[in-house]
Design goal:
Oligomer: single chain
CATH superfamily of one domain: Globins
Mean pLDDT: 80
Radius of gyration: 59 Å
Helix content: over 70%
Strand content: under 5%
Order of helices and strands: HHHHHHHH
């Protein structure tokens, strides 16, 4: 069963019932031509470094050859349905994943189709009196070319869709990285802002301390002067008190001496 998009594609490429019937009727012939045509195809591909690089060795090429024959079995069945669409899409996705540029894919397909068409001409010769065979050959060659162009159409579409997905994925990844980086920057700026604010507060306190220092120093000097004055005044008081004490001592001692003399005189008189 064909969907609307596939139907429209088939219609645009003019792969109608007649073309599909021609492919079915000549399926065995086409599949018999393919092995030798693909051998020449891979020999050609091996001559160019850009395309040879996609194959590890000859065995890898033969594996790819079997896959191509499998795909052509679907084409020559004349059933362009979901199975065909899945097969051609898978081929395009593999080519995209490998990094095969469309120009090499198109050029390689051109070589293969040319080999098939040329081999059909050799195997289905037409003479001047065989117009029916000539028409059959032309119709078959036309069907092969149209089918191959449909293949190419799908493959290029896969390339474009894969490119869009990759761009979308890249944009999403860049958006996440940008958001993460911006978040880190904001955190760094916030931290730096807090550190700058703290440093500014320290500078303000230092500046305030520096501005108050002369006043504090003046107060200290004033206090020192007051203490000195108090100390000097106390020393004077102590000195005056010391002098008074000495004077008392001096007054008491002569009295005591005089009293002692009078007592001595009385004692002498009593003795007489």
């Amino acid at each position: 069963m064909q969907d609307a998009a596939l139907e429209k594609r088939l219609s645009f490429h003019k792969i109608d019932e007649a073309a599909q019937a021609s492919l079915r009727q000549n399926s065995e012939l086409i599949l018999s031509i393919l092995p030798s045509a693909l051998d020449r195809f891979y020999e050609h591909v091996a001559l160019f470094g850009e395309t040879a690089a996609f194959f590890r060795d000859r065995a890898h090429m033969m594996h790819a050859k079997e896959k191509q024959i499998g795909h052509w079995k679907i084409i020559t069945s004349g059933r362009f349905d979901g199975q065909y669409e899945a097969s051609v899409t898978r081929i395009g996705e593999i080519h995209n994943q490998l990094g095969l540029e469309p120009r090499w894919y198109i050029g390689a397909y051109n070589f293969l189709v040319s080999e098939i068409v040329a081999e059909l001409s050799r195997r289905l010769p037409t003479g001047p009196f065989s117009s029916g065979k000539r028409n059959d050959l032309q119709q078959l060659q036309s069907a092969i070319i149209r089918a191959s162009m449909l293949d190419m159409d799908y493959a290029i579409d896969v390339y474009l869709n894969a490119g869009q997905r990759e761009r979308k994925s890249t944009l999403e990844r860049l958006a996440v990285e940008f958001e993460t980086n911006v978040g880190d920057v904001i955190n760094l700026v916030t931290k730096a802002s807090h550190e700058m604010s703290s440093a500014a507060q320290k500078l303000n306190r230092t500046a305030e301390d520096a501005s108050h220092r002369p006043l504090l120093q003046a107060r200290c000097r004033k206090k020192q002067r007051q203490m000195c004055k108090l100390w000097q005044a106390q020393r004077k008081r102590w000195r005056r008190q010391s002098l008074k004490s000495r004077a008392k001592c001096l007054k008491v001692q002569p009295c005591q001496q005089r009293l002692s003399g009078m007592q001595m005189e009385q004692m002498r008189k009593s003795a007489r």
